[in-house]
Amino acid sequence: MKLSDVQKRLQAPFPAHLVSWKPQAFNKERTRALLLAYVDARAVQDRLDAVCPDGWSFELEVISGAPHPAVKGRLTVLGVTREDIGEAGEGEYASLKAAASDALKRCAVQFGIGRYLYDLPKQWVDWNEARREPKVTPELPEWARPDHERSPGGAHLVQAMEQLKYELPEDLELQREVYKHLKAALGSLHAAPAGGHGRAA
Predict the structure, then answer these.
(1) Is 107 contained in some domain?
(2) Are 184 and 153 in contact (CB under 8 A)?
(3) What is the pTM (predicted TM-score) of this model?
(4) Is the pLDDT confidence value at 145 over 70?
């Protein structure tokens, strides 16, 4: 197996629930934020495990003398190696672990993993400073979703299957959440016009 054989699978969009948003900038009053989409390092590792479980490795080298924790990462996939620098944020996020995660994600982008996220339009949204989160989470455009989420109810089915991966949760609230997604998925399928794609509720 060569890298070219798996390039499309590596570059495929991630399920929408794995994509998170972080603020890049704020307005003066901190009531609006410019959001960027990202996936965490675990999602990148899961993608590599799914596509080439025995064909990748990642090495780190700590960079001394940097103002913030920083490392040089070296990701090898099916014999091809790419390198990049990972840096930690400031304050509570300033750790070598954060720098290592950053390095892995930056190296992975060079293989096309998550690169499409850079093509998403930057979005200004209302910001809840007290909770340090957007008041409404942006929605991904159709092209930035995997194929199975572009069909009616697909996103809801993915959420339900994630929660049912191991067993039906004992927690009543989680059971209701699974039921809600399954019901929404079925509703979307029935609501979709014949031959059309519809839209996930």
Answers:
(1) no
(2) yes
(3) 0.71
(4) yes
Give the tens place of pLDDT for each residue, 39-59. Answer: 999 999 999 999 999 999 999
Task: Domain of residue 164: give its range.
Answer: 146-201
183 belongs to a structural domain:
yes
Which helix (H) or strand (E) segment holds residue 61: the answer is strand 56-62
- Cα gap 152→200, rounded to integer Å: 5
- How many Å apart are CA 159 and CA 136, to the nearest integer? 19
Cβ within 8 Å of residue 3, ≥6 positions away: 77, 78, 79, 80, 111
Is 12 contained in some domain? no
Position 127 in a domain: no
Residue 64 CA to residue 99 CA, distance in Å, equals: 13
Apex 182 CA angle, 181 and 184, nearest 5 = 65
Strand pairing class (123-128; 80-87):
unpaired
Mean pLDDT for the chain? Answer: 83
CB-based contact 123:40 (threshold 8 Å): no
Residue tagged 């572009």 (tokens) = 150
Contacts 24+ apart (CB under 8 A), 55-58: 55/1, 55/79, 58/104, 58/107
Q: How many domains does the chain have?
A: 1
Q: What is the pLDDT of residue 126?
A: 94
